[in-house]
Fold this protein.
Amino acid sequence: MTGRRGRPPKEAGGLSRERILREALALVDEEGLEAVSMRKLARRLGVDPMSLYNHVDGKDALLDGVAEVLLAAIPAPVPGGGLRETMSGLAHGFRDAMLGHPRAAPLVLTRQLASMTALAPVEAVLGPLLAAGYPPERAVHGLRAVLAFLIGTLMREVDAAPTFSATASPGRLAELTGSGLPAVSAAAPYLAVCDHEAEFEFGLGILLDALAP
Amino acid sequence: MTGRRGRPPKEAGGLSRERILREALALVDEEGLEAVSMRKLARRLGVDPMSLYNHVDGKDALLDGVAEVLLAAIPAPVPGGGLRETMSGLAHGFRDAMLGHPRAAPLVLTRQLASMTALAPVEAVLGPLLAAGYPPERAVHGLRAVLAFLIGTLMREVDAAPTFSATASPGRLAELTGSGLPAVSAAAPYLAVCDHEAEFEFGLGILLDALAP
DNA sequence: TCCTTGAATCTACGATGTAGGTAATCGACG
DNA sequence: CGTCGATTACCTACATCGTAGATTCAAGGA
C-alpha cells in the first residue's frame, strides 16, 4: 500500500537504461562524482533503489554507461579533411565533450573503455594515419601519444575549473613565490594561472607537428 | 578491560604518521585502492580505527599522504646535466616511481598536489628551462605539456599491467578485428598489445625534440 | 604532588552497495 | 476468454563504511 508494485501499468513513466543514465549524468553535473549513490539516484527518479538493478548491472556498470554517454557526444570528423585537420578536430571535439561535463569527465579519463562508442574516434584517427602511409605500429604509437596528452591535460582542466573560480588565488601565488625554490618563484605568476586554451594548443601543436606536418 | 587504553606505555610500538602511511601503501599494493578502509588499515596495525585520526586528518588526507610518499621516491636530477638529459631523467624517474607501485599511482595521477614534495620536481625542470633562455610563460607551457603526457601515459600503463597478465588476450584481439571498423581491424595486433616502453620513449621523444633539441 | 596534555579506545549514527524474496503487470499462447 | 511465464518494481535485511563524541589512561611540567 505504501507504493506501487509490479510492472508499470502500460506506458507509464517506466524506468529505462537511457532514463537512468541521463539522470545519473545530471546528478554528477550538479553534485559531483562522489555524491553519486544508487539510493540518491533512485530518489531523483522517484523509484526504489533496487529497481535500478533491473536495467543496470551495478554501480560500476552505471558509471561506465555515463562515460559512454559522454564519449558519444564527440562529433565525427568531416570525411574529406586532411590528416592534420582530422586529428585536430577530433582532439578539440574530445576536449569540448569533456569540458561540457567537467565533473563527469574523470569517468572517461580514468577508466579504459572497450565499447564500440569508444572505438569510433579511434577508427577516425587511425584511418587517416594509415592512409597517409604510416606503418600500423607507428600509427598506434602516434594515436596513443596524442591520447595521453589529451587525458593528462583534461585531468588538470576539469578539476580546477568549475567549482573554484579562483584558479589564480593570491594565496596560491604567495605560497609559490615564498617556497624558496628559485625557478618556481621566477615563474610563479604563470604557475598560479592556467591559460588552458593556450596550453592545450601549445602541446597539441607540438604533437601534430611531429605526426601530421 | 578488553584492550589497552590511554597513552602507549613509554616507547612501545606506538602509532605514527609515518608508520600509518607505510602500512597504507602496503595495503594498496596488496589489495588495491578501493580496498582501503580506515578499519582495515587499523586492523593491520593492531589498533582501533579511531586511533588513526590522531595522526591523520581523515581518509582523504591519508591518501594525500600516500601520494606524497610516492612522489618523494623520484630521484633528484644530477646537477651538471644538460637540459634534455635533465628533463628525460626526471620523466623516467617519475615513471619508475609510479610503476613501482602501480595500484597506488592513481593517487598521484588523479589528485593535484600543492605540497613541497610535489614542487621539487617542478623546480628541477623549470630551472634548466629558464636557464636555457625560455621565457617563463613558455617554460611553464612546456613543463605542463610533458607532465600531461606523463600522466596520460601512466594512467594507461598502471591499470592494465599488473593484475591482468594478458594485456593482449586473444579475445580482445578478436573483438577488435571483428568490430567492422577497417582501420581498427588493420591495426588490431598493435592495438591489442602495448609495448609501454617503446610508446613512452616515442611520445617523450617528440616532446623533448620540440622543447630541448 | 597535582595538573595539563595527548594518544588510544569505545560507542554510536547515518549512509552505502546489493543479495534475496515477493507481488503485480504484460505479452503470448491455448 | 483463461492461463502462464517473463519482466519489472518493491521490500527487507546485512555487512561495511567514515567519523563525531565521550572516556580513559600514561607522560611530563608545575
About this structure: Residues 4-10, 37-39, 49-50, 53, 58-59 of chain A lie near DNA strand C (CB under 10 Å from a C1'). Chain A has a mean pLDDT of 90. The two ends of chain A are 69 Å apart (CA to CA). Residues 136-160 of chain A form the longest helix (25 residues).
